[in-house]
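Tutorial handout. Part one gives the primary structure; part two gives the three-dimensional structure as tokens.
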Amino acid sequence: MNAFEITGGIKLKGEITPQGAKNEALQILSAVLLTEQKITISNIPDIKDVNKLIELLGDLGVKVERINKDTYTFEAKNIDLNFFESDTFKAKGGGLRGSIMIVGPLLARFGKAAIPKPGGDKIGRRRLDTHFIGFEKLGAKFIYDSKKAFFNVDATDLKGAYILLDEASVTGTANIVMAAVLAKGTTTIYNAACEPYLQQLCKMLNRMGAKISGIGSNLLTIEGVKVLGGTEHRMLPDMIEIGSFIGMAAMTESEITIKNVSYDELGVIPEVFKKLGIKLERRGDDIYVPSQKHYEIDTFIDGSILTIADSPWPGFTPDLLSIVLVVATQAKGNVLIHQKMFESRLFFVDKLIDMGAQIILCDPHRATVNGIDKKYKLRGISMTSPDIRAGVSLLIAALSAEGKSTIYNIEQIERGYQDIDTRLRALGAQIKRVNADAPSH
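Part two.
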């Protein structure tokens, strides 16, 4: 098993460029199945979840060519629909949450699909109901094989429909949009997610010949077309990486410039970090974070404790709450972190408490952080990464801590962060990859 060994307490300095957006990649790559024409996609992150999906597309019969480090072409002319029945598909599709995203395009173009129950992070229940209910409203029929944990879908006659989503699911909205672009008639999706990544998908589909209006709002109207063509697309930088680097700079008292961040697409993210007292400046399309000895958490206007909660876009993304929580441990002041969407994402705080952080876990969704204002440093420990975001939060804690930390199960971190150890070493971090057995407890 691979692990990271980190010697903390070192100030970092320099420039770092965020990778392409993981959550956008899973949608955009699935959309190549909607046409037999060539699609070129650039700024693709070189991470496990994305590479697995590219490999799965190749297995399905998509002609995949790598042009350079972050650019690929895809040609989905000859798709092998029998691949769904193979053990290879069951194994690969079941180990990747993003595999659910290929269902919408396949239903739209071929009228059938199959999918094993997806895997991925252990952060609580992730419902797929939104996807399935949307497909059913368009006319798809689902057969679930509980023994094989497999869904077979028949969608030979998709028709436009009015769909009111029970939750503003990003992947659910994306999947339904991809199914609807080739359906007969008009589809209206209300309570649609409107994240920048979904806007990117809709703009790309329109360039391919789709007719989607309302992009950027929670009411999308899709007029079905008969066929889609090829296009070129460049993915946004990953906003979760950008937020992670802002938090890392504050925790380690480092002076860091985060390059090419597509600042206008970051929504409230910079403002939330400013509420923690972190100084940051926009410089063109870069974010400059100066070295700060101290940062103080705001209170609400009436003096009550600040609450930071996740909510659908344009609210604060749940993927950054773990980062906000760890950064708050070294701030001056208190904050209540409210993780509404996932019931297990705060369960890594025991590791931070072991490091010396003062945190009260109120319930599975809420934690109160009492910032220690850097009066003493966190101490290095051995720990295991439970999921992508918690893993990076623990990595940030370890970089700021006194002494040596070891993080096991780094495969979870590497599902979402490309060459993270190499890029951190370029800033001066003492981090190395080692082979080590995880502790048994």
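Part three, for discussion. The longest strand covers residues 332-338. The first helix runs from residue 22 to 31.
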